Amino acid sequence: MSGWNKNHAGVAFGGILSMMTDPFFGLMALWQLGEGYRVWNITATTEFVRPGRGLVRVTMLMPPEDMAEIRANLEADGVSRTKHSAELVGADGELVARTSQELYVRRHSR
């Protein structure tokens, strides 16, 4: 942490914790779908559980079953709205925050 990403209390600024996850579910879906799709992150929420001090990590996954759901939605309705979540943990392994996002996916029409 530095003066650029901590707040007046000396802990990670909440916006920094939210930004850690912002683009990644959408990018993972887009990479797996390939060209011809538009992917938007249409909602994002972060629940702050405890102050983030020092190193904070997150592991974000887009498993095959999530992609199967997106593809099935696209096949059935032409669009897909799915929810995805991740947990941010401190260096000590303790939960710092939970984030969830809703992705909107549709075929790209040119």
Overview of the molecule:
With 110 residues, this protein is an alpha+beta fold. Helices cover 27% and strands 36% of the residues. The protein has a 4-stranded antiparallel sheet with strand order 1-4-3-2. 18% of the residues are buried. The mean pLDDT is 88.
Topology summary:
Layout: H1 14-19, H2 24-33, E1 37-48, E2 56-58, H3 64-77, E3 79-90, E4 95-107
Antiparallel strand pairs: 1-4, 2-3, 3-4
Helix percentage range? 25-40%
Q: Which structural class do the helices and strands define?
A: alpha+beta
Low-confidence stretches: none
Report the β-strand fraction as a percent range. Answer: 35-45%
Overall pLDDT confidence? 88
Terminal CA distance: 44 Å
Our count of helices gives: 3
Overall form: elongated
The biggest beta sheet is recorded as: 4 strands, antiparallel
Rg over CA atoms, rounded to whole Å, is 16 Å
Order of helices and strands: HHEEHEE
Instruction: Please list the strands of the largest sheet in the order they lie side by side.
Output: 1-4-3-2
Total strand count, please? 4
Short description:
The chain is an alpha+beta fold and 110 residues long. 27% of the residues lie in helices and 36% in strands.
